Structures are given as C-alpha cells and as structure tokens.
Amino acid sequence: MGAPSLVQDVTRATIEDFLYEEAALLDEWRLQEWLDLLTEDATYEVPSTDTPDGDARTTLFIIADNIERIRSRVRQLLGKSAWAENPPSRTRRLISNVRIRDREGDTIRVTANFVVYRMRFELVDTYIGRYEYTLVQRDGALKIRHRRAILDLEALRPHGKVSIIL
C-alpha cells in the first residue's frame, strides 16, 4: 500500500498500521529495523512517574535519548553488555485509542494508549501508559521524530528500572 503524499491525507488507520508495525518490530527484537523508523533528529523519552509532563532539559527522566543515544541503547540491547536483557525478555505490546492531535506542515502529532508486558524468568512486568508521537513524512513514508512513553504507574516495581524500549 502506497503512503499518502501529504500529511493531510494520512488517516488514523494508516497511523495505527504504522504503530502496530513499530510494536511488532520491538516485540520481535528487530531493533535495527526499528531504528529505520526514526528521523536523524529523533528523540525517545520516558519521564519519571512523578513528573509525567516534565521537560527533559529541567527534570529528571528515566530515559531522555537523542538519536546517538538511541543507537547506543540498541547496540547494548542487541549485544551482550545489557545483562538485564541477556537473554532478551519476551514482550507483547497492545496499542489502543490512537488519536491524531494535530497536523502542521509535514508533522503529525499522535497519542495512543499502551500496555507492554515483559516476561522474564517466569515473572511478568506490566507497563501501562500513553505514547506521544511526533511523526513526519519523509520520502512518502512516516518517520518518528519524537517518541515519549508516559507511564501511568506510581512507581517502577519490583525492580525500579526500564531495560527494554517501551
């Protein structure tokens, strides 16, 4: 299916398909392919649970990565140095309530709800929250310029960390 030529032509269904494909890449640990969905100026953020609307420049974040740090994170996760993910956890992502919030120029702002289940050593961690995306159209394809995973959790339990890409 060809991509619409203007962001004004991009439908919610097209965005849902894009987000579902992103979820599949992450669940299948196809992280190099996931990197191809990002722009060269992409950012990935996970704010702390007590300041979900914070600014990464002035507030402590769980993750506040630019594209170089995202690539480094992927290299670590796919290598042997990320002991928390060696061997990799199994994950399953559920995405719902996808909504287009704004369109301007080549940019689309989107929100969606998520549940990410992480299975490891017979334990299941559940991460629940909301994604905020800034998507742009490049060469007829959607790309992620900004990705924020806002957790609804009061605290990260039981271990207090996020070792996967939410």
Task: Describe the overall structure.
The structure is a single chain. With 166 residues, the protein is an alpha+beta fold. 20% of the residues lie in helices and 43% in strands. The protein contains three helices and six strands, in the order ααββαββββ. Strands 2-1-6-5-4-3 form a six-stranded mixed sheet.
Topology record:
Layout: H1 12-27, H2 31-35, E1 38-47, E2 61-66, H3 67-78, E3 90-104, E4 107-120, E5 123-138, E6 141-151
Parallel strand pairs: 1-6
Antiparallel strand pairs: 1-2, 3-4, 4-5, 5-6
Into how many domains do the coordinates divide? 1
How many beta strands in the DSSP annotation? 6
Reading off the top of the CATH hierarchy, the class is best stated as Alpha Beta
- Low-pLDDT runs of 5+ residues are none
- Reading side by side through the largest sheet, how are the strands ordered? 2-1-6-5-4-3
Question: What form results from the Cα inertia axes?
Answer: globular
Which short descriptors sum up this protein?
single chain; 166 residues; Nuclear Transport Factor 2, Chain: A
Summarize this entry quickly.
The protein is an alpha+beta fold and 166 residues long. It has helices spanning 12-27, 31-35, 67-78, and strands at 38-47, 61-66, 90-104, 107-120, 123-138, 141-151.
